[in-house]
Amino acid sequence: MNNPQFPTARKSGLVVQEVPDEILVYDLDSNKAHCLNQTAAIVWKSCDGKNSVSDIAKLVETEAGSKVSEDFVWLAIDQLSENNLLESEIRSAFSGESRREVIKKIGLASMVGLPIIASLVAPQSAMASASCACVTTPECIAKTCPTTICSLGVCGTTA
Amino acid sequence: MTDDTRWYLLFASRQEKNLVDAFNLLRSAGIEPILVKGWASARNYPETRNRYYTDIDLAVSGEQYDAAAAGIAESGHRLGIDLHRELRQLDTTPWEQLFVRSVCLNINGTPVRILCPEDHLRVICTHWLVEGGINKERLWDIYYAVESRPNDFDWERCLNAAGPIRRGWTVTAIGLAHQYLGLRIDDTPIRDEALKIPAWVIRTVEKEWSLNLPLIPLTSCLSDPKMLLRQLRKRIPPNPIQATVEMEGRFDDGARLKTQMSNVFQRIGPLFQRLFRLTMSK
Q1: Is B232 part of the contact surface with chain A (CB cutoff 8 Å)?
Q2: pLDDT, tens digit, for every residue of B173-193?
Q3: Is A136 on the interface with B (CB under 8 A)?
Protein backbone atom coordinates (compact mmCIF):
# COMPACT_ATOMS: atom_id res chain seq x y z
CA MET A 1 0.00 0.00 0.00
CA ASN A 2 1.34 3.39 -0.98
CA ASN A 3 1.92 5.84 1.84
CA PRO A 4 -0.04 9.00 0.96
CA GLN A 5 2.71 11.09 2.52
CA PHE A 6 5.20 9.49 0.13
CA PRO A 7 3.36 9.28 -3.19
CA THR A 8 4.79 7.34 -6.11
CA ALA A 9 4.30 8.34 -9.73
CA ARG A 10 2.97 5.63 -12.00
CA LYS A 11 5.47 4.56 -14.66
CA SER A 12 4.06 1.55 -16.46
CA GLY A 13 1.51 1.76 -19.24
CA LEU A 14 2.25 5.40 -19.93
CA VAL A 15 3.84 7.22 -22.84
CA VAL A 16 5.49 10.39 -21.59
CA GLN A 17 6.60 13.29 -23.73
CA GLU A 18 8.40 16.21 -22.11
CA VAL A 19 8.03 19.56 -23.81
CA PRO A 20 9.15 22.99 -22.56
CA ASP A 21 7.25 23.80 -19.32
CA GLU A 22 4.88 20.83 -19.65
CA ILE A 23 4.68 17.06 -19.58
CA LEU A 24 2.31 15.24 -21.90
CA VAL A 25 1.16 11.81 -20.79
CA TYR A 26 -0.73 9.15 -22.73
CA ASP A 27 -2.35 6.43 -20.64
CA LEU A 28 -2.20 3.23 -22.70
CA ASP A 29 -4.68 1.49 -20.40
CA SER A 30 -7.45 4.08 -20.61
CA ASN A 31 -6.44 5.63 -23.95
CA LYS A 32 -6.58 9.05 -22.33
CA ALA A 33 -4.13 11.89 -22.84
CA HIS A 34 -3.19 14.48 -20.24
CA CYS A 35 -1.20 17.68 -20.17
CA LEU A 36 0.55 18.53 -16.89
CA ASN A 37 1.52 22.18 -16.53
CA GLN A 38 4.92 23.10 -15.10
CA THR A 39 4.06 22.84 -11.41
CA ALA A 40 1.97 19.67 -11.78
CA ALA A 41 4.90 18.20 -13.73
CA ILE A 42 7.39 19.08 -10.99
CA VAL A 43 5.18 17.45 -8.37
CA TRP A 44 4.67 14.33 -10.51
CA LYS A 45 8.39 13.96 -11.20
CA SER A 46 9.10 14.36 -7.49
CA CYS A 47 6.72 11.56 -6.51
CA ASP A 48 9.36 8.85 -6.17
CA GLY A 49 7.99 7.15 -3.05
CA LYS A 50 10.80 8.66 -0.99
CA ASN A 51 9.89 12.34 -1.00
CA SER A 52 7.26 13.37 1.51
CA VAL A 53 4.65 16.00 0.67
CA SER A 54 6.70 18.62 2.50
CA ASP A 55 9.85 17.50 0.60
CA ILE A 56 7.94 17.87 -2.65
CA ALA A 57 6.78 21.35 -1.62
CA LYS A 58 10.43 22.33 -1.09
CA LEU A 59 11.40 20.89 -4.50
CA VAL A 60 8.63 22.88 -6.17
CA GLU A 61 9.86 26.00 -4.36
CA THR A 62 13.41 25.42 -5.61
CA GLU A 63 12.35 24.83 -9.22
CA ALA A 64 9.58 27.41 -9.42
CA GLY A 65 11.45 30.00 -7.37
CA SER A 66 8.64 30.84 -4.98
CA LYS A 67 7.21 29.59 -1.72
CA VAL A 68 4.40 27.04 -1.92
CA SER A 69 2.31 25.37 0.77
CA GLU A 70 1.68 21.66 1.33
CA ASP A 71 -1.90 22.29 0.19
CA PHE A 72 -0.46 23.34 -3.13
CA VAL A 73 1.23 19.93 -3.45
CA TRP A 74 -1.92 18.16 -2.28
CA LEU A 75 -3.85 19.94 -5.01
CA ALA A 76 -1.50 18.42 -7.57
CA ILE A 77 -1.56 14.98 -5.92
CA ASP A 78 -5.35 15.07 -5.84
CA GLN A 79 -5.47 15.58 -9.61
CA LEU A 80 -2.68 13.07 -10.29
CA SER A 81 -4.59 10.47 -8.31
CA GLU A 82 -7.87 11.30 -10.02
CA ASN A 83 -6.23 10.82 -13.42
CA ASN A 84 -4.63 7.54 -12.36
CA LEU A 85 -1.09 8.88 -12.64
CA LEU A 86 0.01 7.58 -9.25
CA GLU A 87 0.84 3.98 -8.34
CA SER A 88 -2.18 3.88 -6.05
CA GLU A 89 -5.15 6.09 -5.44
CA ILE A 90 -4.65 8.78 -2.83
CA ARG A 91 -7.55 10.63 -1.25
CA SER A 92 -7.24 14.38 -0.96
CA ALA A 93 -6.10 15.81 2.34
CA PHE A 94 -8.15 18.99 2.13
CA SER A 95 -9.97 18.23 5.38
CA GLY A 96 -13.52 18.82 4.31
CA GLU A 97 -12.88 21.67 1.88
CA SER A 98 -13.80 21.30 -1.76
CA ARG A 99 -11.14 21.52 -4.46
CA ARG A 100 -12.68 24.80 -5.63
CA GLU A 101 -12.29 26.30 -2.15
CA VAL A 102 -8.71 25.08 -1.89
CA ILE A 103 -7.87 26.49 -5.32
CA LYS A 104 -9.27 29.84 -4.25
CA LYS A 105 -7.29 29.79 -1.02
CA ILE A 106 -4.00 28.65 -2.56
CA GLY A 107 -4.45 30.75 -5.66
CA LEU A 108 -4.65 33.97 -3.68
CA ALA A 109 -1.58 33.11 -1.62
CA SER A 110 0.56 31.56 -4.33
CA MET A 111 3.00 33.39 -6.58
CA VAL A 112 3.43 30.42 -8.93
CA GLY A 113 0.92 28.88 -11.32
CA LEU A 114 -1.46 26.40 -9.72
CA PRO A 115 -0.86 22.78 -10.70
CA ILE A 116 -3.24 21.87 -13.51
CA ILE A 117 -3.78 18.59 -15.33
CA ALA A 118 -5.79 19.08 -18.49
CA SER A 119 -7.26 16.38 -20.68
CA LEU A 120 -6.27 16.35 -24.32
CA VAL A 121 -8.85 15.50 -26.94
CA ALA A 122 -7.95 14.20 -30.40
CA PRO A 123 -8.22 17.02 -32.93
CA GLN A 124 -10.43 16.59 -35.98
CA SER A 125 -7.35 16.68 -38.22
CA ALA A 126 -6.15 13.48 -36.53
CA MET A 127 -9.29 11.63 -37.51
CA ALA A 128 -9.51 13.06 -40.98
CA SER A 129 -6.00 12.13 -41.98
CA ALA A 130 -5.44 8.90 -40.11
CA SER A 131 -7.32 6.59 -42.50
CA CYS A 132 -9.69 5.83 -39.67
CA ALA A 133 -12.65 5.05 -41.85
CA CYS A 134 -15.24 3.01 -40.00
CA VAL A 135 -18.83 1.91 -39.71
CA THR A 136 -18.84 0.56 -36.18
CA THR A 137 -16.98 1.52 -33.03
CA PRO A 138 -15.19 -1.86 -32.65
CA GLU A 139 -13.43 -1.09 -35.94
CA CYS A 140 -11.94 2.06 -34.38
CA ILE A 141 -10.68 0.06 -31.44
CA ALA A 142 -9.23 -2.57 -33.75
CA LYS A 143 -7.50 0.06 -35.85
CA THR A 144 -6.04 1.84 -32.79
CA CYS A 145 -7.36 5.14 -34.09
CA PRO A 146 -6.82 8.30 -32.05
CA THR A 147 -10.31 7.97 -30.61
CA THR A 148 -12.53 4.98 -30.36
CA ILE A 149 -15.97 6.23 -31.29
CA CYS A 150 -17.14 5.71 -34.85
CA SER A 151 -18.96 8.74 -36.17
CA LEU A 152 -19.67 9.94 -39.71
CA GLY A 153 -17.62 7.15 -41.21
CA VAL A 154 -14.48 8.04 -39.24
CA CYS A 155 -13.29 7.24 -35.75
CA GLY A 156 -14.00 10.52 -34.00
CA THR A 157 -15.73 12.11 -31.07
CA THR A 158 -18.38 14.38 -32.50
CA ALA A 159 -21.41 13.65 -34.60
CA MET B 1 1.77 25.38 -28.17
CA THR B 2 -1.69 24.39 -29.38
CA ASP B 3 -3.65 21.37 -28.17
CA ASP B 4 -3.39 19.93 -31.71
CA THR B 5 0.40 20.03 -31.47
CA ARG B 6 0.35 18.58 -27.96
CA TRP B 7 -1.87 15.74 -29.12
CA TYR B 8 0.28 15.08 -32.14
CA LEU B 9 3.52 14.94 -30.11
CA LEU B 10 1.94 12.47 -27.73
CA PHE B 11 0.35 10.45 -30.50
CA ALA B 12 3.67 10.28 -32.37
CA SER B 13 5.45 9.12 -29.19
CA ARG B 14 2.84 6.44 -28.61
CA GLN B 15 3.12 5.24 -32.21
CA GLU B 16 6.93 5.19 -32.02
CA LYS B 17 6.71 3.09 -28.85
CA ASN B 18 4.37 0.67 -30.64
CA LEU B 19 6.71 0.62 -33.60
CA VAL B 20 9.71 -0.27 -31.47
CA ASP B 21 7.66 -2.95 -29.68
CA ALA B 22 6.55 -4.35 -33.04
CA PHE B 23 10.12 -4.64 -34.33
CA ASN B 24 11.30 -6.20 -31.07
CA LEU B 25 8.43 -8.68 -31.19
CA LEU B 26 9.25 -9.88 -34.69
CA ARG B 27 12.99 -9.86 -34.09
CA SER B 28 12.49 -12.07 -31.04
CA ALA B 29 11.01 -14.60 -33.50
CA GLY B 30 14.06 -14.22 -35.75
CA ILE B 31 12.22 -12.17 -38.37
CA GLU B 32 13.44 -8.88 -39.81
CA PRO B 33 10.57 -6.81 -41.22
CA ILE B 34 10.56 -3.67 -43.34
CA LEU B 35 8.30 -0.82 -42.29
CA VAL B 36 6.41 0.75 -45.18
CA LYS B 37 4.33 3.94 -45.27
CA GLY B 38 3.21 5.39 -41.88
CA TRP B 39 6.23 6.47 -39.88
CA ALA B 40 8.45 6.04 -42.94
CA SER B 41 6.40 8.81 -44.61
CA ALA B 42 5.82 10.89 -41.47
CA ARG B 43 9.58 11.24 -40.87
CA ASN B 44 9.88 13.29 -44.05
CA TYR B 45 7.39 15.92 -42.86
CA PRO B 46 8.60 19.17 -41.32
CA GLU B 47 8.14 19.58 -37.56
CA THR B 48 5.46 22.17 -38.12
CA ARG B 49 3.17 19.76 -39.93
CA ASN B 50 1.38 16.87 -38.24
CA ARG B 51 1.19 13.61 -40.17
CA TYR B 52 -0.97 11.05 -38.38
CA TYR B 53 -0.76 7.33 -38.99
CA THR B 54 -2.55 4.52 -37.22
CA ASP B 55 -1.42 1.20 -38.66
CA ILE B 56 2.10 -0.14 -38.52
CA ASP B 57 2.56 -1.71 -41.94
CA LEU B 58 5.27 -4.31 -41.69
CA ALA B 59 6.33 -6.36 -44.70
CA VAL B 60 8.13 -9.66 -44.29
CA SER B 61 9.46 -12.17 -46.80
CA GLY B 62 7.01 -14.70 -48.22
CA GLU B 63 8.80 -17.58 -46.47
CA GLN B 64 8.63 -15.87 -43.09
CA TYR B 65 5.06 -14.63 -43.31
CA ASP B 66 3.35 -17.51 -41.50
CA ALA B 67 5.93 -17.49 -38.71
CA ALA B 68 5.58 -13.71 -38.42
CA ALA B 69 1.79 -13.92 -38.24
CA ALA B 70 2.05 -16.52 -35.49
CA GLY B 71 4.75 -14.49 -33.73
CA ILE B 72 2.72 -11.33 -33.43
CA ALA B 73 -0.58 -13.09 -32.63
CA GLU B 74 -2.58 -11.02 -30.12
CA SER B 75 0.10 -8.41 -29.44
CA GLY B 76 0.11 -7.51 -33.12
CA HIS B 77 -3.51 -6.50 -32.91
CA ARG B 78 -2.89 -4.35 -29.84
CA LEU B 79 0.08 -2.65 -31.48
CA GLY B 80 -1.85 -2.03 -34.70
CA ILE B 81 0.44 -4.15 -36.86
CA ASP B 82 -0.73 -4.69 -40.42
CA LEU B 83 1.41 -7.57 -41.63
CA HIS B 84 2.16 -7.89 -45.36
CA ARG B 85 3.54 -10.78 -47.37
CA GLU B 86 6.29 -8.78 -49.10
CA LEU B 87 4.86 -5.78 -50.94
CA ARG B 88 2.25 -7.63 -53.02
CA GLN B 89 0.80 -5.29 -55.66
CA LEU B 90 2.68 -2.29 -54.30
CA ASP B 91 5.89 -3.23 -56.09
CA THR B 92 7.32 -5.81 -58.46
CA THR B 93 10.94 -5.47 -57.37
CA PRO B 94 12.15 -8.77 -55.86
CA TRP B 95 11.95 -8.75 -52.06
CA GLU B 96 15.64 -9.69 -51.70
CA GLN B 97 16.61 -6.62 -53.70
CA LEU B 98 14.35 -4.33 -51.66
CA PHE B 99 15.74 -5.80 -48.46
CA VAL B 100 19.40 -5.39 -49.45
CA ARG B 101 18.76 -1.74 -50.35
CA SER B 102 16.67 -1.03 -47.22
CA VAL B 103 18.07 1.19 -44.48
CA CYS B 104 17.92 1.14 -40.69
CA LEU B 105 17.05 4.27 -38.74
CA ASN B 106 17.11 4.71 -35.01
CA ILE B 107 14.07 5.20 -32.77
CA ASN B 108 14.97 5.48 -29.08
CA GLY B 109 17.96 3.18 -29.58
CA THR B 110 16.12 0.57 -31.65
CA PRO B 111 16.96 0.20 -35.34
CA VAL B 112 13.88 0.39 -37.52
CA ARG B 113 14.20 -0.88 -41.08
CA ILE B 114 12.56 1.07 -43.88
CA LEU B 115 12.83 1.06 -47.68
CA CYS B 116 15.61 3.11 -49.24
CA PRO B 117 14.38 6.59 -50.32
CA GLU B 118 14.10 5.56 -53.99
CA ASP B 119 12.01 2.45 -53.32
CA HIS B 120 9.98 4.32 -50.69
CA LEU B 121 8.97 7.04 -53.14
CA ARG B 122 7.97 4.55 -55.83
CA VAL B 123 5.96 2.44 -53.37
CA ILE B 124 4.06 5.37 -51.82
CA CYS B 125 3.20 6.63 -55.32
CA THR B 126 1.74 3.22 -56.19
CA HIS B 127 -0.07 3.01 -52.87
CA TRP B 128 -1.63 6.43 -53.36
CA LEU B 129 -2.79 5.48 -56.83
CA VAL B 130 -4.06 2.02 -55.87
CA GLU B 131 -6.42 3.81 -53.50
CA GLY B 132 -7.69 5.76 -56.50
CA GLY B 133 -5.96 9.01 -55.55
CA ILE B 134 -8.91 9.75 -53.28
CA ASN B 135 -6.88 11.12 -50.38
CA LYS B 136 -5.51 14.53 -51.29
CA GLU B 137 -3.94 14.90 -47.86
CA ARG B 138 -1.77 11.84 -48.48
CA LEU B 139 -0.41 13.39 -51.66
CA TRP B 140 1.76 15.36 -49.23
CA ASP B 141 3.58 12.10 -48.46
CA ILE B 142 4.81 12.16 -52.05
CA TYR B 143 5.53 15.88 -51.88
CA TYR B 144 7.73 15.52 -48.79
CA ALA B 145 9.41 12.30 -50.00
CA VAL B 146 10.59 14.22 -53.08
CA GLU B 147 11.39 17.41 -51.15
CA SER B 148 13.46 15.64 -48.51
CA ARG B 149 15.26 13.25 -50.85
CA PRO B 150 18.99 12.89 -50.17
CA ASN B 151 21.54 14.55 -52.45
CA ASP B 152 22.57 11.20 -53.90
CA PHE B 153 18.96 10.18 -54.70
CA ASP B 154 19.10 7.75 -57.62
CA TRP B 155 16.19 8.62 -59.95
CA GLU B 156 17.12 5.75 -62.25
CA ARG B 157 16.62 3.26 -59.39
CA CYS B 158 13.40 4.95 -58.29
CA LEU B 159 11.76 5.12 -61.70
CA ASN B 160 13.02 2.07 -63.54
CA ALA B 161 13.41 -0.63 -60.88
CA ALA B 162 9.85 -1.91 -61.34
CA GLY B 163 9.38 -1.61 -65.10
CA PRO B 164 8.03 0.97 -67.56
CA ILE B 165 4.37 0.79 -66.49
CA ARG B 166 5.15 1.60 -62.87
CA ARG B 167 7.56 4.27 -64.02
CA GLY B 168 4.52 5.95 -65.59
CA TRP B 169 2.54 5.64 -62.36
CA THR B 170 5.34 7.20 -60.30
CA VAL B 171 5.79 10.06 -62.74
CA THR B 172 2.03 10.75 -62.76
CA ALA B 173 1.77 10.79 -58.96
CA ILE B 174 4.73 13.16 -58.69
CA GLY B 175 3.18 15.26 -61.45
CA LEU B 176 -0.03 15.54 -59.43
CA ALA B 177 1.92 16.63 -56.35
CA HIS B 178 3.51 19.28 -58.56
CA GLN B 179 0.22 20.42 -60.06
CA TYR B 180 -1.87 20.52 -56.89
CA LEU B 181 0.66 21.07 -54.10
CA GLY B 182 3.32 23.05 -55.89
CA LEU B 183 6.07 20.44 -55.60
CA ARG B 184 9.24 21.66 -57.28
CA ILE B 185 10.29 19.26 -60.02
CA ASP B 186 12.49 21.48 -62.17
CA ASP B 187 15.59 19.87 -60.64
CA THR B 188 14.41 16.34 -61.41
CA PRO B 189 14.87 14.28 -64.59
CA ILE B 190 11.05 14.07 -64.98
CA ARG B 191 10.37 17.82 -65.12
CA ASP B 192 8.81 17.60 -68.61
CA GLU B 193 7.35 14.11 -68.39
CA ALA B 194 5.51 14.85 -65.11
CA LEU B 195 3.58 17.69 -66.72
CA LYS B 196 1.82 15.34 -69.13
CA ILE B 197 -0.91 14.01 -66.88
CA PRO B 198 -3.76 12.26 -68.74
CA ALA B 199 -7.02 14.22 -68.59
CA TRP B 200 -8.93 11.29 -67.07
CA VAL B 201 -6.53 11.23 -64.13
CA ILE B 202 -7.19 14.91 -63.43
CA ARG B 203 -10.97 14.39 -63.76
CA THR B 204 -10.83 11.41 -61.39
CA VAL B 205 -8.89 13.05 -58.58
CA GLU B 206 -10.91 16.26 -58.72
CA LYS B 207 -14.17 14.30 -58.58
CA GLU B 208 -12.93 12.17 -55.67
CA TRP B 209 -11.65 15.14 -53.70
CA SER B 210 -14.96 16.94 -54.09
CA LEU B 211 -16.86 13.83 -52.89
CA ASN B 212 -14.68 13.42 -49.79
CA LEU B 213 -16.06 9.96 -48.96
CA PRO B 214 -13.55 7.46 -47.55
CA LEU B 215 -13.49 3.99 -49.08
CA ILE B 216 -14.75 1.43 -46.55
CA PRO B 217 -14.70 -2.35 -47.09
CA LEU B 218 -18.17 -3.50 -48.20
CA THR B 219 -18.12 -6.30 -45.67
CA SER B 220 -17.91 -3.64 -42.94
CA CYS B 221 -21.01 -1.86 -44.24
CA LEU B 222 -23.43 -4.78 -44.21
CA SER B 223 -25.15 -3.56 -41.04
CA ASP B 224 -25.58 -0.04 -42.42
CA PRO B 225 -27.66 -0.06 -45.65
CA LYS B 226 -27.22 3.69 -46.25
CA MET B 227 -23.46 3.44 -46.05
CA LEU B 228 -23.52 0.25 -48.12
CA LEU B 229 -25.40 2.07 -50.87
CA ARG B 230 -23.00 5.03 -50.80
CA GLN B 231 -20.03 2.67 -50.95
CA LEU B 232 -21.55 0.76 -53.87
CA ARG B 233 -22.15 4.03 -55.70
CA LYS B 234 -18.53 4.93 -55.06
CA ARG B 235 -17.40 1.67 -56.63
CA ILE B 236 -19.66 1.59 -59.68
CA PRO B 237 -18.23 2.46 -62.10
CA PRO B 238 -14.84 1.74 -60.55
CA ASN B 239 -12.38 4.56 -59.98
CA PRO B 240 -10.36 4.69 -63.25
CA ILE B 241 -7.04 5.25 -61.47
CA GLN B 242 -7.57 2.33 -59.12
CA ALA B 243 -8.85 0.12 -61.94
CA THR B 244 -5.84 0.92 -64.12
CA VAL B 245 -3.35 0.19 -61.34
CA GLU B 246 -5.11 -3.02 -60.31
CA MET B 247 -5.10 -4.16 -63.94
CA GLU B 248 -1.40 -3.19 -64.28
CA GLY B 249 -2.39 -0.74 -67.02
CA ARG B 250 -0.56 2.20 -68.50
CA PHE B 251 -1.42 5.79 -67.62
CA ASP B 252 -1.88 6.83 -71.23
CA ASP B 253 -4.54 8.93 -72.93
CA GLY B 254 -6.63 5.91 -73.98
CA ALA B 255 -10.24 5.39 -72.85
CA ARG B 256 -10.65 3.65 -69.49
CA LEU B 257 -13.94 1.81 -69.99
CA LYS B 258 -12.39 -1.51 -71.01
CA THR B 259 -9.99 -1.39 -68.05
CA GLN B 260 -12.82 -0.52 -65.66
CA MET B 261 -14.98 -3.38 -66.96
CA SER B 262 -12.13 -5.87 -66.65
CA ASN B 263 -11.55 -4.61 -63.12
CA VAL B 264 -15.20 -5.21 -62.19
CA PHE B 265 -14.93 -8.83 -63.37
CA GLN B 266 -11.65 -9.26 -61.53
CA ARG B 267 -13.15 -7.97 -58.28
CA ILE B 268 -16.52 -9.68 -58.40
CA GLY B 269 -15.27 -13.21 -57.69
CA PRO B 270 -13.27 -12.37 -54.53
CA LEU B 271 -16.12 -10.11 -53.31
CA PHE B 272 -18.64 -12.96 -53.47
CA GLN B 273 -16.13 -15.27 -51.81
CA ARG B 274 -15.73 -12.77 -48.94
CA LEU B 275 -19.48 -12.32 -48.58
CA PHE B 276 -20.01 -16.09 -48.63
CA ARG B 277 -17.35 -16.61 -45.95
CA LEU B 278 -18.87 -13.84 -43.85
CA THR B 279 -22.37 -15.28 -44.15
CA MET B 280 -21.14 -18.76 -43.28
CA SER B 281 -19.22 -17.50 -40.25
CA LYS B 282 -22.40 -15.83 -38.95
Answers
A1: no
A2: 999 999 999 999 999 999 999
A3: yes
